[in-house]
Amino acid sequence: MFRQTESGNKEKQYKFLLLIVLILSIVPSPIHKLGPLVPVLNAGPSNSTYGYSRQWASFGGPSGPNGLALDGAGNIYVADAQNYAVGKMSGSGTFLSIWGSQGSGPGQFKNPIGIAVDNAGNIYVTDSVNSNVQKFSITGTFLRSWNSNGTSNGAFVHPQGIAINGTGYLYVVDQGNQRIGIFRNDGAFTKFFRLGPPGNFTMAMGIAIDSQGFVYVDDANTSFKDGFSGNVTKFTQNGALVSSWGGVNSGGTLFYPQGLAVDSSFNVYVADSFDGESRVEEFSNTQKLLRTFGSWGSLPGQFSQPMDVAVDNQGNLFVADPLNFNVQQFSSTTGAYLASFAYQRSGLLSTPFNSAVDGLGNLYLTDQSNERVQKFKTFDGTFLTMWGSYGNQTGQFNGPSGIVVDHSGNVYVTDYNNNRVQKFSSTGAFIKTWGSFGTSNGQFNGPIGIGADSSNNIYVTDNGNDRVQKFDSSGNYLLAWGTTGNGSGQFNGPQSVSVDAGGLVYVADTGNNRIEKFTGSGVFVLAWGSIGSANGQFNSPKGIGLDTAGNLFVADTYNSRVEQFAGNGTFLTTFGSAGSGNGQLVHPEGVAVDAMDNVYVMDTNLLVPGTADNRVEVFAPFHNTAAVRLTMSRNTAFVGVSLVNLVALNLTVSNYGLSNETFWVMILANNTVIAKQNVTLASRLSQNVLFAWQPSLQARATYNITGQVQPVPGDPNPANNKIQAGQFSVRMQGDVNGDCRVDIVDLSTIGAKFGLQSSDPRYLSAADLNNDGITNIVDLVLTAGKFGQTC
To answer: What is the four-CA torsion angle of 291, 293, 296, 300, rounded to 10 degrees?
Structure first.
């Protein structure tokens, strides 16, 4: 009997539970609409699609000074071949301005090389590729250009140096035609001259004019077949030969002279850029060698093929050293090195190579050709700080490549050509360095990629040695693995490395066009990929980034795309295509992923430097976001009433995504934004946003009001986030019915509502002109006072 009762009770409980489940399956749950309350991390493959969100930065290379000129105030002007521009610095090296871009139009350059400044502050620049001279105002405004590429009078072929005499005439080295052209400052051609018979100028480069009007030209030809090659030659202002000296083929010391300058004592300074010599030589007015400045190298006071010189009246000599990316200053009287100047424009990039994101929403990237690290806010690309310069001292770089931020906020950078790793604080303060060239433990042959695990151990891809080395956070060597080859655990020029939350190590085996996966101790786990352009194939994979779920993003450099994989190598999705438009890529290098799974791609252009592809592009996963409520407090307002209620809109925004999202919340009146706020919401949260404004600020009209919520990272269907709210009208005082005139109709309307209070459903706010909550004699008087008026 007991057993039968127990059995009957269980059956009834079962039927009751079944009924509850059935009811719950039918009745919609608001929690179900929002999805799971807690995001699931490390949940395996993500089905997110990624779309272009935003970008920042553009090309801005290191200063590459071909030509130098000084104005009367001592400012330095640089014909900047690296940036296709003219750069201006103070005499102490402070960056002042820059203008120009790559191209052949007005104000554009392809190889600016010679530069000169007249007494009025106008700047003249020769472009050896565009074969022209361009004139600019002191502020960089384009004024005019002249030439035609050819051999006729006034035409140029590869013009080089340019100089201005005391009366304002321009002398231009027309290298391709082996002559010097003389022009007025408006470009009008005057004459040209050559050195003796045609052909004696075989590679004329630099030109200078002294205070007496004598013209000095150097010739860089080192074939030793021409008696004047490699010499400096002096002419009268009309082109008559005076003297020649200096070339090694005539017993002198000049090998490959480029630019030159003359000081007030008629001493001549010549930049000799012959490889291995790289120096500046000073000659007296009697052609005697007085002194040499510098030697070959990259240290302060050394040169790597100097291109031009300039000298001021205070005894300062300035040398353009383009391969060391700087202008160096010396004392012309003692020969002592004084300073080096190089402008670095914050926020611009030249070959951004790799990047890393910290836990505070900051992005660090290696700005490789600018030999520095830059730091930005991930949200909008706001520049924060930068550090580094070209060199081999602590804190300097020669090819900064990989970058990673450990869990303590320290920043590690692989310094490729210096064969070392450098460690910095988050603000760029140097902490320590380790490594040297070689094959032994702790040595490198071109370190590129760098990653960190949860214990702050550091993993480095030793590119030239085809291995990965592991260190502790102080740089102490722990272990290494890998050899040259294409077998499991072997490498062919490995580049990026990244470590997931479980300590598994992923390596971009670039030369083998695959990804390899290892344990933290170097035990091979698996590999995937092959050469090609199909999904899951690569053409030189370089950058690697990991999201919060352990999925891998790979910069497929020469396929101009990013591919996403699960941690087991399963292909998930791809985004990006070849091109320079938004969401397109040209040779992406580095990849980083933030805590919201936004993907930051370092987009370079390895074949065409100086383009807009030197940028950071952000791709975001699409989330289901919505504005769920939009209400308006009133729909009528008046201009001219002293007490006008605010028009108020209340918008509720919900984040249906699995991570934090930032939204633009906007109110539009007739499709024009009249209010806008920025709202950041955590996953599964909602927030009310209130907009209020005085309608008297609007012109008289009827406005359709729309609320819009647009996620900053993008949304696959933004139209779903728009809700029509209604209208409000801005009217003339007393115009109750809104027909743009005050007449008997308006008085009648007020009369029909006379005595009604705002709590009465028949109350009409448009008839309550003074907004005191009741329609009464005051409203009638106000309307009568405006009787007969029209818009």
So the answer is: 160
pLDDT value of residue 51:
76
Q: How many CB atoms lie within 10 A of CB 483?
A: 11
3-state SS class at 214: coil
Q: How many CB atoms lie within 10 A of CB 192?
A: 19
Angstrom distances, CA of residue 433 to CA of 300, 393, 395, 478 = 21, 10, 9, 16
pLDDT tens digits, residue range 281-330? Answer: 999 999 999 999 999 998 899 999 999 999 999 999 999 999 888 999 99
Sequence letter at residue 749: T
* Average pLDDT value over all residues in the chain: 84
What letters, b where the CB count within 10 A reaches 16 and e where it falls short, cover 142-159? ebebbbeeeeeebbbbbb
Is residue 17 scored above 80 in pLDDT?
Answer: no
- Residues recorded for the chain: 791
The predicted-structure confidence for 55-112, as pLDDT tens digits, reads as follows 999 888 888 899 999 999 999 999 999 899 999 999 999 999 999 988 999 999 999 9
136 phi/psi in degrees, rounded to 5: -130, 155
Which residues 6+ apart lie within 8 Å of 691 measured at CB? Answer: 648, 649, 650, 651, 667, 675, 677
The answer for 371, left when phi > 0, alpha when psi is -120 to 50, beta otherwise, is: left
Mean pLDDT of 654-662: 66
Instruction: State both tokens at 341.
Output: 């100047």
| Residue-level pLDDT at 39 | 22
**Amino acid at residue number 317:** L
What does the DSSP assignment read for 595-620? Answer: TT--EEEEE--SSS-SSTTSEEEEEE
Q: Which token pair is 158?
A: 């590869």
CA 396 to chain centre: 21
